[in-house]
Specification:
The chain is mainly α. The protein has two domains: 2-183, Cytochrome c-like domain (Cytochrome Bc1 Complex, Chain D, domain 2, Orthogonal Bundle); 186-219. It has helices at 2-20, 38-52, 63-70, 74-80, 98-105, 115-118, 121-128, 156-160, 164-182, 185-215, and strands at residues 58-62, 91-92, 131-133, 141-143. The strands form two sheets. A two-stranded antiparallel ribbon has the order 1-2. It has a two-stranded antiparallel sheet with strand order 3-4. Strand 3 (131-133) and strand 4 form a beta hairpin. It is elongated, with a radius of gyration of 22 Å.
């Protein structure tokens, strides 16, 4: 347990340090995060698997845990998320080696397990909406929030074939998913919280009538 905690802290520091060169957190776009919106989380997971997972892993998440939390069926998981050699119990890691990543991008893309906590949901959302064409960069892209970023605009085709509102919704769903990934236990706490509120409401009503019964003869 202690080893995993230390590893988590180190990973958070690496991810945070990798993005620190991207400027401050001022003037970030606001984003509505709603972990109870299961449809949004499912769409965000699909976008991540299609456009991000080839370079960025989320090593603290297993496919079957994600599927159970987000209500993704086994058939959809196997057909839309897993490669033929992968199993539902595998962690969501990349197949690309660190050496290949450094050769292609100049640096190894960071794991994104904790990016929504180390930076903030607003930072992630703003970053994904801030790419612009730059013919002088190696990738042909730069980012207004993260200057000289090594990452290309992987959602370019999505943005090109969408209205601004549609693209913002895709980015919001992806950000929502990364917030879930950073702390999956939140979903459990939300479910428990609902039952606690229901119990509290019922207990309050019972306590009120019990009090009236005990005090009805006392004046």
């Amino acid at each position: 347990m202690m080893i995993r905690l230390v590893f988590a802290i180190l990973l958070l520091a690496v991810a945070g340090g990798s993005y620190a060169a991207g400027g401050g957190d001022e003037n970030l776009d606001s984003v509505h995060i709603n972990l109870s919106d299961r449809a949004s989380l499912q769409k965000g997971a699909a976008t991540f698997a299609s456009y991000c997972l080839s370079c960025h892993g989320i090593k603290f998440m297993r496919y079957n845990r994600m599927a159970e939390d987000l209500g993704i069926s086994d058939d959809v998981l196997r057909s839309n998320f897993l490669q033929p050699s992968q199993k539902p119990g595998d962690v969501m890691d990349v197949n690309m080696s660190e050496e290949d990543a450094k050769r292609w991008f100049g640096t190894a893309p960071p794991d994104l397990s904790l990016i929504a906590r180390s930076r903030s949901p607003e930072w992630v959302y703003t970053f994904l909406r801030s790419f612009r064409v730059d013919e002088n960069s190696n990738t042909g892209w730069d980012n207004d929030l993260f200057a000289d970023v090594a990452m290309p605009h992987v959602l370019y085709r999505v943005q090109e074939n969408s209205t601004r509102e549609e693209y913002d919704r895709v980015v919001r769903d992806l950000t929502n998913f990364l917030v879930y990934v950073a702390e999956p236990a939140k979903l459990v706490r939300y479910n428990i919280g609902i039952w606690v509120l229901i119990f509290t409401a019922v207990f309050t009503v019972l306590a009120y009538y019990l009090k009236k019964e005990y005090w009805k003869d006392i004046h």
